[in-house]
Design a protein that fits this description.
This protein is largely without helices or strands. It has 1 helix and no strands. Bound molecules: zinc ion (ZN). The site of zinc ion has 8 residues, from loops.
C-alpha cells in the first residue's frame, strides 16, 4: 500500500525547463525596402519604425475645460 502511493508521487510532467523564446536571428523588417534588422526577441515582423504604434490613450478626464473667467 505505501509503496503504491510513493510511485504515484513520481516526477511531475511540468518539470521541463522552458526555452527562451526567440523568433529567429537575422530577421529583417517585413516592410518593403526596409533592411532594419529585427531583434530576435521582437516577435513582430516589422521594425520599430514600421510597427504601428499604439500609444497608450489616457481615458478619463484629460480635457480640462478652460473656464473663461
Ligand atoms: Zn522597417
Amino acid at each position: 500500500m505505501r509503496e503504491e502511493s510513493l510511485i504515484l508521487r513520481g516526477a511531475s510532467v511540468q518539470a521541463l525547463p522552458r526555452r527562451n523564446r526567440t523568433w529567429g536571428r537575422g530577421r529583417v523588417c517585413a516592410e518593403e525596402g526596409c533592411t532594419t534588422r529585427l531583434s530576435m526577441y521582437n516577435r513582430s515582423k516589422l521594425c520599430w519604425n514600421h510597427e504601428p504604434i499604439r500609444y497608450y490613450i489616457a481615458r478619463g478626464r484629460k480635457k480640462r475645460r478652460a473656464v473663461a473667467a
